[in-house]
Structure prediction request, 472 residues.
Amino acid sequence: MTLMVAALLADIHHAAAAAQIDVPALLRAVEARRIEYGVAGVGLTLVSRERVLWTGGLGVTDWNRPVPVSADTLFRVGSITKAFTALALLLLEDRGRLRLDDPVERTIGPGHYASRWETEAPVTLAQLLEHTAGLHDLTRTQFSHSDAKPLTLEEALRVEPDTRILAWKPGLHAVYSNIGYGLAGRALERAASERYEDFIGREFLAPLGMVDSGFFLDGRAATALATGYDTDARSVLPYWNMLYRPFGGLNATPRDMAAFVQLLMNHGRHDNRQLIPAEAVARMLTPRTSLAARNGLTFGYGLGIYQSFRRGVRFYGHGGDGDGYLAHFAYDPSSGLGYFVVINVFRGDALRAIRREIESAIVEQGVRTPSPAVTPASLPLEALELLAGRYELAAWRFPWTTEAERTAQAIEIRRDGNRLVTVSADGSRTALIPVTGHRFRRENEPDATSAFVYDEGMLYFQEDESYVRVSH
Prediction:
């Protein structure tokens, strides 16, 4: 057992029984945000490691048929599906059916993408899951693709196959790409010799008791699904049979999602059974395949899980967009508290406001104190000067992004006394606090969240975006 896993297992017993949260006060705060933003319905689950603290809903499933949202209301959870996909591949790796660090072509065969780096740097499954394979995201045609009869993954991968061309060398930049999870889902099918949805259902949904969750609008789902609304909170968005279900096709209820969040919080255990090895869950939490990750940055997007901070407290989770629905789950290992929340309107500001209420309650009422920020490193002025310059986007998500749009996102990194600051195109300035000689954090972050790394003569600055220095 690794030291990391031993430490993760040790916190199962830390404060679980004593974890408290003022649920009535939180529900009042969430309801106030729901009304403020005109959201029809909110599904919410709050959990500790050992029990469900609350699961249910606020508001209605449909403005025209105002049925109250309940713990059993079905919602689309979008890219939260990626965490299930990553877990499934980790389970297959544990069973010896594949290896995440092997070239993906060993599993899916050739011809699924084009790469001029394939000989020197073949794409791996881990890179697909961490968004470091060098792929742009879906084209507009692929995003809007919706057959009345959902396509199989094999059929879906025949749609615009010539657009799957690597834009950057694999293992260099982290750029969010739903295509990667389509390929990863196909690898799962080939390794498991069965349909993606069947494997997820048998290995995770059934053991977790997620009896109302699934990937298709059939059976109970056809009547139990809350209506999804556009940004105006009134225009109905039709159900979208997305091209690759492994990136975002799951439909789930707040009650069902409680078990999934607890599975992660308990390091793969559910109902006294180890569904997936603790080491596999630990692997999900920390990125390894980007340039920054290979040079020591532990913050970022792991395998279907990413990290965020709320008032100095680190949360692990993932968000989801289901066109008409926005969802998020996250948990704080130090307090043993977690949540799942979903709204049936495509308004990011509304979900962010509701998440702020939930996570703030966990931070304030969880039985622990936030970790202190790491002690800043003291770097000589000449070391800071070596990192200064103009940086432009080195990689970008959407294939239709224009040069003008990329230029507009350029930043200046300047030395300001004994520190660095980033200056965006609108003039806003943010300090970079050194943690080591090449890893930095922002003032509201307790640990390093960005890194400067040289590669093949180029200096990159990687955080949420990846930049390359173009002038010094």
